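Erythromycin esterase family protein: structure, please.
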Amino acid sequence: MDYTLEEAISRFAQPVNGLNDLEPLMEAVGDAKIVLLGEATHGTSEYYQWRAEFSKRLIQEKGFTLIAVEGDWPSAYQVHRYINNFTEADETARNLLKQAFTRWPTWMWANEEIAGFIDWLKDYNASLNQKIGFYGIDVYSLWESMEEVIHYLNDVDPEGGDVELAKQAFSCFDPSNRKPEKYAISYATFSEGCIDEVTQLLASIRSNAENYTNEEEADLNLQINSLVAKNAEEYYRAMVRSGAESWNIRDHHMVETVNELRNYHGTDARIIIWEHNTHIGDARATDMKDDKMVNVGQLLREQNPPEDVFAVGFGSYEGTVIAAEAWEAPYEEMVLPPGRKNSWEELLHRTGAHDKLLIFDDSNRRLFDRWIGHRAVGVVYNPEHEAYGNYVPSMISKRYDAFLFFDRTHALKPL
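Here you go.
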């Protein structure tokens, strides 16, 4: 029987009134080793709260031990050290997050919702002698990662060749004065980059891996910071050439970091990934493919058996959201207007103004594999203009394995 999208939603959507209603989602995850949890904005409280609660269940009931987020490695690694008691400092989660996440947009990870989750992770690790990890997989922290590399190498092998390579790489970036756009323009103008320096550094650190201690995962920290330096250099060079190229470099880096984490902890280690829907929902089921753009969800599906990867999209019809009017502008609470008519969000609302869960499987996936606009809000947002640029043409059931919808949502609570 053929259904309209509206009829298919009415037929297969399950009402969600509380956390207990996530049981079907837990069952649908099955034995997946990689679970991707999305968000339609970077400033919605419900997305963070429900991802945290679902992550707790995945940790407790299915043995997940790694959490990877759309954040900088050095900042997230401070959280990782905190929840694993690698530091003796008398600290609170709230203070730690404010100190660790200082790069704009700070509210993405320095918020009340994450603080509560970090407290839970720390207590869980301590009470059960667990080692749940919390890692950042983004590519932006070029200078911070270089500093981490130099600091560590100076401590463990101040006379070694790797520390000299690291200093050479760092000095290559010095004229840019920590401004990525200045480095990118300099490369475009003079065709002089730091490609060789960061490539040699990463290769040398990898070849000398046995020289570096694995105490408190110091070897992993060194390796990923070196990887960030190499890929961030490539990302910032690409910024002036092509938006699609720089996007692909960024998402390839995220997947490379996920794979490094899984290799380090063992390929059977199970990982939860928190990122925007535009990263975790398969790009092949959106118009991104027309611009030859890929993303994390697509790459992980291509690299792993289908049963090992499970992606959950998140969205809402209306509410409030934290965002900014321009890049590096102060954040503000904005109105998230009702979803555009005949969009995915509006159809979900039209079929019942309540929260709901859709799980896509062989019995119903084809009913949802038709094109529809699907809202995506970034850190920069103008509600008045969203109808013209914030809806991504998508085939929802091919983009995700499940979708969690909230009829009305509320703004995140920044620290």
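Notes: The first helix runs from residue 5 to 12.
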